[in-house]
Each structure stands twice: as structure tokens, then as C-alpha cells.
Amino acid sequence: MTVSPNPNRRGLRQDGPTLDVNLREYKFFPPAARPGAIVRHALLERVTRMGVPHVVILQAPLGSGKSTLLQQIMDGGHAKHWAMAWLTLDENDNDPRRFEAYFIALVARMVAKAGVTMTAQSRVTTDNMLDWVLAQIAQIPGPLGFFIDDFQWIHEAAILRFFRDLLRALPGRCRVYIGSRNLPNIGVSALLVAEEALVLRMEDLRFSAKESAELLISAGDETFDAETASFVQARTEGWPAGVQLFKLALVRADIRHTLEETRDIAPLELVRYLSENTLSLQRDEVQIFLLKTSQLRRLSGPLCEAVTGIHRADALLQELEQGGLFLEALDGSPGWYRYHSLFARFLAERFGHERPDGVLDVHRRAALWYADHGVPEEAMFHAVESREYALAIRTLDEWASRLIAGAELVTVAYWFDKLPLQEVIANRSLSVKIAWALVFLRRGGPKHPLLLYLEATRAQGGNPEAHSPDVVLAMATLFNNDLRGATRLANVPALQHPAREIFEAFELGAAANLLAFSAMAAWHEEEINHLLVLADSHNDYAQAAFSHGYTLALRCMLQVLGGRPRLATEAPRATSGTRPYVNRGMAAAALAAARIWACYEADALDTAERLATQFEEDITLAAVPEFIALSMVSIARVHVARGRMMQAGDTLDTLERLSFQSQWSGVREMVAWERLYLAGRSGDAARMEVLLPHVSGDAAPPDPVWIPVTEALSGPLLGRIRLALQQRRLDRAADLLKSALAIVPVRPLLSVKLNVLQALVQHRQGQTRLALRTFQHACETARSGGCYRALLDEGAELAVMLDPVTGSEVDRAPPPAAPRARKAAWFDTLSQREHEILHLLCSGASNREISERLFLSENTVKFHLKKLYLKLDVKNRAQAILKAQAEIR
């Protein structure tokens, strides 16, 4: 029988998300029900009855019957017309991008089985894959069931976080059944406390005496009687695999006669004893076949013939499967099989002990077979096991082009760790590809041997066909917080031309992204747009959703810098074919970082907090330093706006610690200026004195052609002006503003912020009319693009004292009064935002008027009013006004 060497290469429905990871179809099927298998009626009732928690975890060692029970639960669900889907995991699924592909396919299958068609809206990229999953299952009526087997392989933090979020968010009509050898780190304790999870362990899964007897004693078979069945039950303590092994081994009369000899054998020794006797039942040819093929993770006739030399291997596999010898057919992959893990482990240990050289030979033959048939993952496994490193490196070099472009970086790093470094370095092309994975996984520090090698040899490449390391070294430099140095390396001539192959297109897309980010510092707007168009073009050719995510993040930043943050607050709608991200530690983290900044500048604080809750940890682990700094300073500002000064300090502490550990000098300076700014806003003069030595003070003026993107939020450009204002050095502030405005007239967001600061200086200098005109101009510009925080952070004083709507005499408005010598106890507990709201409250403004004046939603105003009433110890608006007016008098 001819079997396709790679039955995994099958896509999804055309109306589902486009996937570029080769999928193993058999992973979507439960194990086939074995003839004579015991139906676990009591357990089935326990895990499917009404009122059972929606998460059921079967946690037990090998041979406990987890997969069989999951299969029987699924059969029962089919009978009840549930919508269900199955996924078996393996160690390769720790790559978030790979896992993402499988889970999307899992949900797509469930939707398809329910007869629901995915709409175009359902394919739109969202903040993360959780939103996408919930949107899909919302279309499916009735109960749903997810079956996830072999969860013990998963340890990648991003995937575990996704499962924790998923289990909390699934609606009550969804059931999740998980099989695992260990208790997965997916928030099980919290689920148990909330009575939302049920965990069945080894003692729960054991066969009862009745079930063991049912399995052993067959009609017309005199091999087992009630006494023997009772002995087996006692000896195995109902362990399902042990009972099955006894059933196979005790077919031989001589083994039955030695039952008493097994009474004192330990459990693992019992497995070996029974497996040994099961093996000895087979004819010589079958024994050789079993021992050799035990080294394979899955089996087919052609593959087994290649590694054993035994002809008609496909017929032999069918014979073994029909005989119940711990071999099961893989549904969805015709002609493919796998051994039960427990039996395979025994066979592999036996073969390794008897023929260690034979083990290497089997792996070498399997590696060559898989390489010839285009299955790189299995070829890599067997090549490494056989120490055929030359074959492994050739295989990985070709495969890594697709892996890197598809963001399967963990897979690249996983195989790199299994190869000798000197063997890798000898292959320049593979070295470059691995460097990409290490850099984006934050494992590629400047002292990494692979990067040191690429840096040392980059000037030696006389071979035009040799792979240049320039772009990946540029990215490593960017991740070390040196954008200018990265720009010099990334400006490669090939950028303006179509790529010759997929990996080059990926690299050029990344280079275009990097240069676009650099052009934002120089503010060449046309060049930025041109580079982002180039990035999209290269990304499309490479099918690189990874790089495309960074391009989306940069477009978001461009909107913010261009004074249009409101446009960037919503998740961008990706072109059809792209897919949602579970790999939140990569491109999605960059996009989330940019959106958090956009949401803060647009005063969409609720959205900023939601994104921070979802992505803050991922951003700190994976994003570019500037992206991390912008998002975390924005998060700190959100805490300040909500009156949570302690949390704001904690966020800045985290950012400072990260910048210290990573030696990001630019980010450390940004943190120092932000701390000084917040101390000034709170009027803490003593803290300002302590912080002053940590900033650059009256250093040279900023470079007129290079203003880092982070300066638009916090840094020396705005920081020195703010500091001069806080120190009441108005002439100094005016001079700084004059020089700053001269170099940023075409940087819209910075221009708005500088104009607000200028209006504040003019107001404090007594130039009230001029201040009003300057501020009104800034307001018009800010409101058109949604730059509301530019007004609120610096302009609150002006909004209250200069806005003619208040009816104040703006021409004769006095400068701010000095603080009262004595204030009520509650006065100092109010945040700046609460002071602003209280002032407007006392002027008679309604909630709607307050929301319009402070550019907040009415819900946000209500939120602040509740906190305000609590601090004033009052129950309503009237009491709050009376208490505040009493303080003013």
C-alpha cells in the first residue's frame, strides 16, 4: 500500500483563517475505540452530569486510561449532539505560533461541524486569539466540548497564559476536558476554589474489580476465571495498562503458572516483566520489527521498511493493530500508526540495551527517509538522535527560512540548543537564521557567541551568495536600545528591489520596519510611509504575519506622532489571510504597546487599562525597548489619572529595573525624567531635589534632526521645560520653548504639547490674552485628532482658569494663588483629576458638561465622582459641593 509520506499538509476550509503551519491531521482525532474496551459508565456519569464544573482535568501517569476515557466522553457528547473538537498535543506545540495554528484549526473544525460559516468579520485580527475564539464559539448554538490530550508537553508561558484566560472567559455551555500526566499550570487552584474545575487523578481512573473482570473474562475464553481476575485486580490495583498487559501476557500457560512470582514485583518491574512476556509471544520477525520501530514516534509501512529492511511492513502493522498489541491507527492519517507510550518505552529501552549501535542506525535511516520525503520536523528529531549533525544542519537551514518568516521562533531555538555550536557556525546561512530567533526571543545579547561570530565575519563576505548578517545584527542593535546604530546596519541596497526568496523577503520587511521607525525620529513623513509600504510588500511575499504585526504597530505610532491617536485606539483591521495572535510575546506585544500609548494620548483610559492587563507582561518580555518604554510610561500615567500613585510608581520601578538589567541607557533616562515630572505634578519639592541629579539637566539642546519617538511622551525635551515651570523659572522655560518649537513645527503631537506648555508659561507671565489664543489653537489641533492628554496633563490649569465658558474675567484673571497654609484632611488625598472634577462640580457643571470639558466619557466621570464622594465622606453631589465650598471659604 502506498502511503503519503506527509499526510499533514492539508489546509482548512477556505472561509477560515489562512494558516501556514503544516498540520498533522491525526492530532485532531481521538484514539479509536478498541474492541472489547470497557465503557467507564461510573466515570462518564461523574464528568458529564448536570452541575459538573466546566473544566475537567484527568491527571495521571502513563497507562491510566486518560485518552480512552476522553474518547468515551466525546462519544457520549456526540450522542447528545454537542459541538466538539479534539487536539492531541506534543512537545513541538510549545512554539506559540505552531500552537496558534493548531488551536485556530481546532476551533474552525468545531465551527464547520456545527454547520456555521465563518463570516469575513470573524477573520479580522483582534487584540489576541482569545477574542477570536470567543467570537467563533458565540456562533455555535448549544453545548460545546474541547478535548485536549497530552497537555503535559506544554510549558511555554504564553500558551499557558492563553489557557488561563480561555478557561476564565468561556461561557457556561462550554466544557473543557484535559488529559495530562501532570497538573497543568493554567490556574487550576483558582478554578478549584471557585468550583469551576474537577480533577480526576490515578485513584479515580483505576478499574473497579467489576471492570477488570469484564475486560479479562470473555465468553468462551477459559484463560481467565474469576479467581485469576481477582488476583490481577489486586496485583495491578486496577491500573488499566497493567490489566491490559496481564491480558496479553497470560495467554501463555507457562506465564499463568508463574502468577505467584509477580506478587512482590514493584510496579515498574511489573511493566517490564509483562511487556517482556508479551514480546516473547511474538514470532522472531515480529520481535525484531517491534524493537527497531520502537525508536519511531509514528509509523507507516514505507518508513518501517526503510528502517528495518522487512518487506510488507504495512501488512505487518495492520496485523499488530488488529491483534491489540498496543498499536493504534492514527485517524486522519491513513496508513500511519503509533505505539502506546508505555509499551514503546519498554521496547526502546530493551533495544537500546541490546543494540546501542542499532539504535543509531534506525535513527539515521529514519532521518534520511523523512528528509527525502519533505518532513523536516521528524528528520531533525532522528538526525539529532543519530548524531548526524551535518544532515540536521542542512535540514534546519532549509526549514528555518519558513519557520522564521512564520514566527515559529521557539522551534528554531529548540533545535539550535540540540546542535553543537561549532557545527552551526560553520554554516553562515543557518547562523543568520538562528540569530533572528535568538534576538526576538531576547536570548541574543551582544555577548552571545553566535552574534559575536556574525559580527566578526560580516566584513569578510566576498561571496555574493553568502547570507549577509547585516539586518539581523541591526535588529540585535535595536533591541540593545541603539536605534541610530541599527539604522546604519539595516539600510541595505536590496531593500528597494523585490526579494529573490521568502527568507530574504522576511529580512527586507524587517529592515523596512526598522528604517521606518528610525525615520520617525527624523520625522521624514513621506519616507516613513514609503518604507511601511515596502515593508508590507516584502511581508506579503514572505507571508510573514510576524513582521506584518510590527508594521501595524509602526502605523499606529505614526498616527500618534501625527497628532491622530484617536485613530489608533482600535485594533487595526488586517488584510484577509492574516490571523489573530496567541504569540502575544512577539508582534502582538509590539502592537499592544503602540496601542496603549495611543489610548493614553486619546484619553481612552479604559481601553488602555484593558490592553495593559492583557499584554503588560508580554510587552516587557518581548518588545523593542522604545515600545516597552512608551507603553509602560503610559500605563503609569493611567494609574496617576486614576489616582493610583503607588501603582504608577511600581510600573516605573519595573521599567527601570528592566532597563538596568538590559543596559538600556535611553530608557533609564526616560524613567528619570518621568519620575521628576510626576513629583512636580504632586508638588513634592523634596522628592524633586532628590531626583534632579538623575537627569541631564541643562545639557546641550536636542538634535534638531533626531528626536526619539519616546520624547513625544517623556524625556529631556519636554522634561526640561516642565522642570523650569515647576521651579518657576519662567524665562528659562520660555527660552527652552522657543528653541524646541523651532525644531518640531512638523511633528504634530509634540507641537500640541509644546503649545500647551507655551500657553501655560504665557499665562504665568501675566500674558493672559496671548495665553488664551495659544491654548485655544492647541485645543483645536488636539481635538481634531484626539490628543486629549496633551491638554489634560499640562493644560488643566488653563482649562479651568482661562476657558471663557466658566464666566471668569480672563483679562484680569490673577496668577494661581499660593496654597493655603492649612487644608482639610481630605484635600491632599485627591488626585489632580479629582481636583479638576471638584472645581467643575462647584461651578454647577453636569456630568455631561464635565465629560466634555475634561474630554472624558460620562462613565469615567461617574467613576471619579464615586471615588471623590468616598474621600469627602459624603453621599451625593450637593453634600460634596457644600463641603468643598466650606474649605474654600
Task: Give an overview in words.
This protein is mainly α. The protein has 6 domains: about 25-205, P-loop containing nucleotide triphosphate hydrolases (Rossmann fold, 3-Layer(aba) Sandwich); about 210-280; about 285-380; about 390-460 and about 465-545; about 595-810, Tetratricopeptide repeat domain (Serine Threonine Protein Phosphatase 5, Tetratricopeptide repeat, Alpha Horseshoe), CATH 1.25.40.10; about 825-889, Arc Repressor Mutant, subunit A (Orthogonal Bundle), CATH 1.10.10.10. About 60% of the residues lie in helices and about 5% in strands. It contains 43 helices and 8 strands. The strands form 2 sheets. The chain has a 5-stranded parallel sheet, with helices on both faces. β7 (about 325-330) and β8 form a beta hairpin. InterPro entries: P-loop_NTPase, Sig_transdc_resp-reg_C-effctor, TPR-like_helical_dom_sf, Tscrpt_reg_LuxR_C, WH-like_DNA-bd_sf, WHD_MalT. This is Transcriptional regulator LuxR family. One of its GO terms (molecular function) is DNA binding. Keywords: DNA-binding, Plasmid, Transcription, Transcription regulation. It holds the Pfam family WHD_MalT.
What features would you highlight for this structure?
4% strand, Rossmann fold, plasmid, DNA-binding, 8 strands, 5-stranded parallel β-sheet, single chain, 6 domains, 3-stranded antiparallel β-sheet, 889 residues, mainly alpha, WHD_MalT
